[in-house]
Write a structure and sequence with these properties.
This protein has helices spanning 5-24, 37-62, 68-80, 84-111, 117-127, 133-141, 144-171, 176-200, 209-213, 220-226, 236-249, 264-279, 281-300, 306-340, and strands at residues 344-346, 353-355. It has 364 residues and is mainly α.
């Protein structure tokens, strides 16, 4: 728990900022701090069950255990038992943090100066030498089967990684420094990129360009194409209709809030790569391919302008570097605190104490 205390303190500060902002804007009705709590718990339980059945039971089966499931449960608990309660506390922390983020995201239109969609779209086109990025991608990705695959990567796979990676880091005692660095970067991405920067560059993205600017022709062809997946699981078009309905009603719901610049989807995909490289080189390479597909998919599915993803990648790498420096400092401080709190052993007949578990480290 000592390693995780800075993360809990950061969430407490973020909650305070969210509450003060809501009161200042007279928008307390947009506070939905616990909207993700039970969903997050169920998703975490599902991730653990999948790990148990796919990894641990397979190991038991290879070892020819008579009771592979029982052996798998015992082995997994032996690995994570020490971190069970701290990991649960961290999971609740993150669920509440995302609730605060969604609350603030739904407040952005109340204090943002103006929508910047036209300026961002024009700049994105200029950056690509006069070409519109989604049209270039459509030449390759513009097939229903390919688009459905991209939608699958963009929603369920992305959510699985968003929840699964923190669970892995939260349960591994040996990954304390990486855990702090990863979750701190994630918090900073959502708070700084997703709230502060998003307020300065308020935009809805291609999916809502027509509703925001009144120009339905610029991205109309893309939106019309995406409508083919309506009614199917994780359809980008259906999710976009849901988000716009929530926006018009002014009622925060699960995942609601509209802001395109910068892209948190790409930011988290970048963070997956950075963390994956620390865990295993092969995992980093796999996640790099996945991150590239998310970057392309964010444009192809009409969620973002290309520049949204570029800004997110740069911002996430900068925050990762800052979080790494902070995590190293915290790790040294925590190690020193743990060393200093070792039990003091009283030396018989002397009234003096020795420092260390065996009384041999020094005499006080």
């Amino acid at each position: 728990m000592l390693h995780d205390l800075p993360l809990h303190a950061l969430t407490a500060l973020y909650l305070l900022i969210t509450a003060v902002t809501a009161v200042a804007l007279d928008a307390t009705d947009r506070l939905v701090l616990t909207v993700y709590l039970w969903l997050w718990m169920r998703a975490a339980a599902l991730c653990l069950m999948m790990y148990l059945l796919v990894v641990e039971v397979t190991i038991s089966a290879i070892g020819r255990s008579r009771r592979p499931l029982t052996a798998a449960v015992i082995r997994m608990w032996g690995r994570i038992g020490f971190r069970a309660l701290p990991a649960l506390a961290l999971l609740i922390n993150m669920a509440v943090f995302y609730g605060a983020f969604t609350s603030l995201k739904n407040m952005l239109p109340l204090f943002a100066l103006d929508w910047q969609d036209k300026q961002i779209a024009d700049f994105s086109r200029w950056l690509h030498f006069g070409y519109t990025p989604w049209r270039l991608l459509h030449l390759v990705l513009g097939q229903p089967a390919v688009t459905r695959f991209v939608e699958f990567l963009y929603v369920p796979v992305w959510l699985g990684l968003l929840i699964g990676l923190p669970i892995l880091l939260g349960l591994r005692r040996d990954l304390a420094q990486l855990r702090v660095r990863y979750i701190l970067t994630m918090f900073l991405c959502f708070a700084l990129l997703g709230n502060a920067v998003a307020a300065l560059g308020m935009s809805g993205g291609p999916a809502f360009y027509g509703q925001i600017t009144g120009d339905h022709a610029r991205y109309g062809e893309l939106i019309d194409y995406l409508a083919f997946s309506s009614g199917r699981p994780f359809s980008a078009w259906d999710i976009q209709q849901y988000l716009w309905a929530c926006f018009q009603a002014g009622k925060p719901q699960l995942g609601s809030g509209i802001s395109a610049f910068p892209s948190l989807h790409v930011a988290m995909a970048t963070l997956f790569v950075l963390a994956g490289r620390q865990l295993a080189p092969w995992l980093g390479r796999v996640l790099a391919v996945y991150g590239l597909l998310i970057l392309l998919g964010s444009v192809h599915l009409g969620w973002h302008y290309a520049i949204d993803g570029y800004a997110s990648m740069l911002g996430t790498m900068l925050l990762w570097s800052i979080a790494g420096w902070i995590a190293r400092r915290l790790s040294r401080s925590t190690t020193a605190a743990e060393t200093g709190s070792e039990c003091l052993t009283k030396l018989p007949g002397t009234g003096r104490f020795a420092c260390g578990h065996d009384g041999a480290a020094g005499v006080l």
